[in-house]
Predict the structure.
Amino acid sequence: MVSAQGDDLAPFTAGSHIDVFLHDGLVRQYSLMSDPKVRNRYQIAVLLEDQSRGGSAFVHQSLRVGDVLEVSHPRNNFEIVEDATSHVFVAGGIGITPFISMAHHCIQNAIPVKLYYCARAPETTAFVDHLTRLFGKNMLLHYDGGDPSKSIDLTKLVASESNAQLYCCGPRGLMTALAEAVEQRGGSLITEHFNPVGSKSNDEAPQRGCFTVELSRSGVSIDVAEGQTIIEALKTANVDVETSCEAGVCGTCVVDYLEGEPIHNDVVLMPDEQKNSLALCVAGCKSKKLVLDL
């Protein structure tokens, strides 16, 4: 991607992503793979999903060279820990994308870095040649052929990298298993979620219930029914709010609340931010009323 006006693009830090506005209100988030020092282009990667919710199918089937798209300013929920002495990246599948810009940052700043890249098979593993040039001997490829019994030994990985800052991006199962290994063996882990919260099983679905949302600026009250999201209730009442993933991973629909006890189901807000803000798409509520700064 380059600027339609030929200008430099907005600067970004390693691990950032952008919102890409595709068509008919469809917005998707993609990690920036470019070297953060390169200002004249953004690079993203879009995997064509078998069960696309519209985003990847549109990119692969409809976009053409020269098309003009609107994108957001870069945002970063997956920042490099600057005071760490070494970094270890654990990627699964297309979860490799944020680590490419992060690798550029580490290499340019002479920070020790290593990559564990997990995939099904060599023929489905993206960017291997580029990653080899970046990481050299500090890259380990692990193929499991789709057999969970042949997955990488995360307990051993955590034990061998006990002094490093760990980062993980990939399927939810990989991130959960690594988090459990870190909890058992000790260490520090930061994860980047790209699987939507909505892909969880029904048993793990966000908690919702009957409550009332009050919009403080207009005084309008809207009932949120059992099993309904706040976003859905607002749309039913013809209240427009900006949304994107509707899965609690992008932060587009985060707003402040003034009263009530929300149930936070997102993976965007930090604990201190949850004291004042919530993600409308996945938040529930313990109290009967939730007052929003809208």
Summary: Confidence is low (pLDDT under 50) at residues 195-208. The first strand starts at residue 17 and ends at 21. Residues 202-292 form a domain with the Ubiquitin-like (UB roll) fold (CATH 3.10.20.30). Residues 2 and 41 are 5 Å apart (CA to CA).
